[in-house]
Write a structure and sequence with these properties.
single chain, about 250 residues, Umud Fragment, subunit A, four-stranded antiparallel beta sheet, globular
């Protein structure tokens, strides 16, 4: 083998090593520190919009097997556990299909009784205050002018919610008693969210939590098709970039 061939082989080997190290660092960061997610649906409007890209902190609630790619980590339950707080916006694996990620707001804690009556959220038999903010006009993603409220949870945390009206499918529910180690999750777009009010989702075990949504690092609306390069700059929602998620 010539010296040139040896140098070429060494260069290829060094490149492979560099790529492997970079891959390990990226996977480790994604598994332990933060993971990017994008919002594909409107279930968290008005807090999160379709086309938002956000970082989810993996360390906020500790780690389970779902914190790692393909759920390969042999972890039973959680390690370094810290419990979700009411009002957190969190990403979790769907209990009925752990390959699917969902993002919703933590509403009910273990031991709570959660019920919706005529559109009003009730926690432990006490109605949660909501204050009328106004209406939003129909868009390509909706056909009605929805109503926006500011909802105040028992500990004083506030967030915005959106309703079509108070006579939709999940505006009157049974009383759900949340078992130990489980959480009741709801979308902020209350009449357009499949969440713990639905039997297809149900309450979420702590093991299924991936992390807490922290801030939006990029956001783009639906005005530009992938091939419409000239429209890309105007489709970016610059005002949302860097926004923390409340």
């Amino acid at each position: 083998m010539s010296k040139t061939d040896e140098q070429s082989g060494s260069t290829i080997l060094d490149t492979i090593k560099t790529l492997l190290v970079a891959g390990i660092i990226a996977i480790s960061f994604r598994s332990v520190v933060a993971e990017p997610f994008n919002i594909p649906s409107g279930s968290m409007i008005p807090t999160l919009l379709v086309g938002d890209y956000l970082f989810v902190s993996k360390y906020s609630y500790g780690y389970s097997r779902y914190s790692f790619p393909f759920g390969i980590a042999p972890i039973n339950g959680r390690v370094f556990e810290d419990t979700p707080q009411r009002g957190d916006v969190a990403v979790f694996r769907l209990p009925s299909n752990p390959s699917v990620d969902y993002i919703k707001r933590v509403i009910g804690l273990p031991g709570d009784v959660v019920q919706v009556k005529q559109g009003i959220l009730h926690l432990n038999n006490t109605p949660v205050n909501r204050r009328l903010i106004g209406t939003v006009q129909p868009s390509s993603l909706q056909s009605t002018a929805d109503t926006v409220y500011r909802e105040t949870l028992p500990d004083g945390r506030e967030h915005m919610i959106q309703e079509v009206n108070d006579i939709q499918l999940f505006d009157n529910t049974q009383a759900f008693t949340i078992p130990e180690g489980h959480y009741f999750m709801m979308g902020d777009n209350r009449d357009n969210s499949r969440d713990s009010r639905s039997s297809s989702v149900g309450v979420v075990p702590i093991e299924n939590f991936i992390g807490k949504a922290q801030f939006i690092f990029f956001s783009v609306d639906q005005s530009a098709r992938i091939w419409e390069i000239w429209k890309w700059p105007t489709s970016v929602r610059f005002s949302r970039i860097g926004s923390s998620i409340e």
